[in-house]
STE24 endopeptidase (Actinokineospora diospyrosa), 286 residues
Amino acid sequence: MRPDASAVMGVLFGLPAFLSSLVVVALVAGLISATTWVVWLVVGLWVLSGAITFVPAVESVLARLMFDMRRPTTVELTRLRPLWESVCATANVDSSRYTLWVEQSKELNAFAAGGRTVAVTRRALDLPPRSLEAILAHELGHHLSGHSRASLLAWWYELPAQAAIWLVSMAMRIVLMVASLFARFGSAAGALAGTLLALILLVGLIALNPWLLLMPLLSPLMAWSRRLGEYRADATAAGFGYGPDLVNVLSGWLSAEHGARRSLRVRMLASHPATADRIRRLRAGR
């Protein structure tokens, strides 16, 4: 299978973050050296750096950093590996291409990351074999459609932009804190100067990198593309024959939600569709 529309959209919607990071890297390189070729070299190396996320050892390190994961114990692997191999055999996929992990979480969940990582939570290991296979088939669907690889690359390339936002935000907080101290001790001029400096920092960041303005605006679209990816992974698992089993798992999740309602904002920014909607689509064969 090839990357589907949701994976492609995830990459396209991540372009503003990539361009923002590109500007940040170029600015930092310019501060280090005024030589043009050095700046271009640093920028070029950063653009190419995304390729290291394809290296298995690097992916393992990133997986440990991004998620609280560990390798399965012998007992866990004895249970997990045959089920994973069964799913891969059904999908006609080489199971050895992927690495199995256990997430240190008490929640019932599983996820795919990068190009090779498949993880389940400790609680998921207690599911009946067929239910656990259905969840693994869903995660395999993410890999086969390119969702996990696109997400890892998007995360990697937005790091410089996120770092710049964090640094400026911290500087603004410190400046505003100092301004509030001036105001508390009766120095209106000091308070006004601090407030103006905080605004200058904000305007300066946007002026140097206007792409940052698009990042929060695209967040709902990014979330929408991820929800499409969940539907696609469900459909892939159903295509492998795990549709009814996946419905059983999702029905258990739906019961645990106790009919909780989500606000419009939460629904727009959610990376996963409503459980009831996923069940309806699976039953309808979509």
Notes: The chain has one domain: 1-155+209-286. The mean pLDDT is 84. Residues 1-155+209-286 form one domain. Strands lie at 69-70, 99-103, 110-113, 117-121.
